[in-house]
Amino acid sequence: MGLVAALVRSSFLVDAVYAESGREHGLTPQQGKLLCVLMAQPYGMSELSGMLRLAKSSLTGLVDRTENNGLVRREADPRDSRAVQVALTPKGARLADRFYTEACGRIERLADGLDPREQESLAELLGRVVLDNNVPVVFVEPESGPARP
């Protein structure tokens, strides 16, 4: 399998894990991603739009639906009185932790067919691709555990 096919198919594989884990927790894949991003800290709408690669109107709808479920809240941005940040509610933080733990376990098991050295090499190579392409930090490292709001 070539590089392009491997990267694209692995993306579909991870997306499928998000979808499956999300369904089990009553979340859409997009809501799961939003909760995981917010585990580190609250973010402004513009920051979230860039991180999640969503148009502002799509992000507004996503935040509205997630807020209606009591998982996130909008709060004043301490750096800009005209802007708001999106933060996890206590209920959202608990659900994010459960979803995160489940998704991490499933994603980690995707590489069970590799020995530890191969897993380390894969992580190093993919990490370089991510860093070389300036991908924003959208997922807390499982080894360090999720940040608590």
Write a short abstract of this structure:
The chain is mainly alpha-helical.
Helix content: 55-70%
Total number of β-strand segments? 3
What low-confidence regions span 5 or more consecutive residues with pLDDT below 50? 144-149
What is the radius of gyration?
A: 16 Å
Let me know the largest β-sheet: 3 strands, antiparallel
What class, by secondary structure content? mainly alpha
Compressed to H and E, one letter per element, the order equals: HHEHHEEHH
Question: Can you describe what's shown?
Answer:
The chain has 149 residues and is mainly α. It is 60% helix and 11% strand. It contains six helices and three strands; from the N terminus they run ααβααββαα. It has helices at residues 3-24, 29-38, 45-52, 56-68, 90-109, 116-132; strands at residues 43-44, 72-77, 80-88. A three-stranded antiparallel sheet has the order 1-3-2.
What is the topological layout?
Elements: H1 3-24, H2 29-38, E1 43-44, H3 45-52, H4 56-68, E2 72-77, E3 80-88, H5 90-109, H6 116-132
Antiparallel strand pairs: 1-3, 2-3
Helix pairs in contact: 1-2, 1-5
Task: Provide keyphrases for this structure.
mainly alpha; 3 strands; 60% helix; disordered C terminus
